[in-house]
Design goal:
Shape: globular
Largest sheet: 7 strands, mixed, barrel
Number of strands: 17
Number of helices: 7
Strand order of the largest sheet: 9-15-14-12-10-16-17
Helix content: 10-25%
CATH superfamily of the largest domain: Putative cyclase
CATH class of the largest domain: Alpha Beta
Distance between the termini: 50 Å
Structural class: alpha+beta
Strand content: 25-35%
Radius of gyration: 23 Å
Order of helices and strands: EEEEEHEEHEEEHEHEHEHEHEEE
CATH architecture of the largest domain: 3-Layer(bba) Sandwich
């Protein structure tokens, strides 16, 4: 009897086989190896047996490189203050009060109050019924996933009411392969160039209707079918600004996707190859909340 064990680095480096006599042989990713006179063929296939290969996982050296500086870490989060673009109608958005000072108390602390949906934040499924999962109930594994960046900044510059089409998703998949389950899809519209100018970011017309890009219902249906974990965007909402009924919210949140809105620094991400870590505040019963979002990437190639 042999027991296999392995190491994942975007795939298996090798498998250590242990026999009844205690011998072990380091096996390559695939191929023939003679053990005790018997030929053994190792087939590494996704989702079969106990040996799996997942392109969705970051390589261990990518994670280890964070502390050494070898891995590039891009912060996709805006700092929170009281002067960020807010949803129309939200008058009270953020307040901070000093509770203790070094001069008086020997230490410094503050208390703060803010909206759940303000700045860089995450929408939980419970934000729109019939979605029920609150922010603290989202499975932790869904906060980690490969980034699928779709750059529609050119289209958005031509048409501020642009909505992502299934055809653009197909173009991405023709270049990079089918979007994997558990991916976090990020729509780069270029709207971050307007931050933090609230008037330009909202882009409101004389009738009070906002105009900024977003996802379409058709594209959202396709991404739900791909079993992605979440949708992100560099605007106030994943629905385009002129939406009257938040149709993409009403479709994707009940399907247990989450949303990342008001993302920063998307111009630093490649279409494929980054790994997203989205860490929302664990707010019990929250419909959403502030979220720190990071993208991990391999170091740039040296010239």
């Amino acid at each position: 009897m042999f027991v296999a064990g392995g190491t994942l680095d975007g795939g298996l480096r090798g498998v250590q086989l242990h026999g009844a006599c205690g011998e072990g042989v380091l096996m390559p990713r695939s191929g023939w190896m003679w053990i005790g006179g018997a030929a053994v063929l190792l087939l590494f296939a996704a989702a079969s047996g106990s040996i799996t290969k997942s392109k969705a996982l970051p390589r261990p050296d990518l994670l280890a490189g964070v502390s050494t500086g070898d891995t590039r870490v891009v912060d996709l989060t805006y700092a929170i203050n009281s002067h960020l673009p807010a949803w129309p109608g939200d008058k009270r958005v953020f307040e901070a009060q000093v509770n203790a000072t070094p001069a008086k108390d020997g230490y410094f602390t503050r208390s703060f109050w803010m909206l759940e949906h303000y700045g860089t934040h995450m929408d939980a499924p419970a934000h729109f019924p019939p979605g029920k999962i609150t922010l603290d109930q989202i499975p932790v594994r869904r906060f980690f996933g490969p980034a699928v960046l779709i750059d529609v900044s050119a289209e958005s510059k031509m048409n501020p009411d642009y909505r992502l089409t299934p055809a653009r998703i197909t173009q991405w998949e023709n270049r990079h392969g089918v979007i994997p389950a558990g991916a976090i899809v990020i729509l780069r519209t270029g709207w971050a160039a307007r931050w933090p100018d609230q008037a330009r970011y909202r882009n409101m017309d004389g009738s009070g209707v906002m105009h900024f890009p977003g996802y379409s219902v058709e594209s959202a249906k396709l991404l739900i079918a791909r079993s992605v974990s979440g949708l992100g965007i560099d605007t106030l909402s994943i629905d385009y600004g002129a939406s009257r009924d938040f149709e993409v919210h009403r479709l994707t949140l009940p399907a247990n996707l989450y949303h990342l809105e008001n993302l920063a620094n998307l111009d630093q991400l490649p279409e494929r190859g980054a790994f997203i870590i989205a860490a929302p505040i664990k707010l019990e019963g929250g419909s959403g909340g502030p979220c720190r979002v990071f993208a991990l990437m391999p170091p740039r190639a040296s010239n």
